[in-house]
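note to self — DONT lose this again. spent like an hour looking for the file last time. sequence + predicted structure for the chain T wanted, 321 res
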Amino acid sequence: MKALYLIQTYKNPNQIYRLVQTIKKSSPESYVLVSHNFAYSDLDVVHLKNLPQVEVISGKGGRGDFSLMQGYLDAIEWLFDHNIEFDWLTNLTGQDYPTQPLTRIESFLAETKYDGFLEYFDSFFDSEYNPWGNRIGRDRYLFQYWRSGLHIPLFESGYSVRGRILNRIGVDFNKAQPCIRISWAFDDGLVVGVRASSTPFNEKFLCFGGSFFHTLSRKCVRFLNNFSKQNNHVVDFYKKTSTPDESLIQTILVNSKKFNLCNENKRYIDFSSCLNGRPRILTVDDYPVLIRDNIHFARKFDLAHDSKIINMLDARILPGS
């Protein structure tokens, strides 16, 4: 079984190096593709490519818009264009880390009956299975957004009074009428959305949502690659939505009805007390939770904030190293 790890990165080069090295030590036969946003930070490509079966390409990334999703689509297209062999693809960021030996995870994947592991739910249907509630899904995927570039630093020193006031104005404005949405939720500043006159969604093509992070079999990844190239109208619509990376992959795969998908992505991400949609940085206090058998990877970690938790995980992932 050939595992491939797609890592989309943009900062903290030393943490990226450590993640790649840990992957290669724990799974020497795996392939690692690093898609790095060089516009944000430099990366020692030679250092990484000296490792066997490690490649680095230039990639895109961001929050809220289509850039992260475009970087992902570009990366999987690169894989097939270069005939890279793999049976399973796991997508990560530079702030993710495995929580158990990769040989154990890969043995699990070699034996599973499933074609993919990803979180998904009907993003327009308000139910116990939809953690967003139907308003978030509808606001994200029934509107087409324009990003003004007008940055309003709401969260520079915690959730400021100014931030609370502006956020409250936006929430009240959005609830008061059905046609326009305004938000300061992401780093690119003020975002304005207009209700789309038409969408690709219907009773046979539902809009699904869920976490961007997943583990997919090769046939799922190939289907994503082919669909994205053959259905420009769907991709182009998503390019103007909000947070398309938390819907497009689920919408394509689940609607196809071609795959046996497990509605669980095997990740640990803690959004409790999160600020501006960012998950909490994990520390040594999280270790007892991270080592549960059903968790394969977790995020997010920061060596500058707490390096001890990475050392503890390495001792588990790389015993005797």
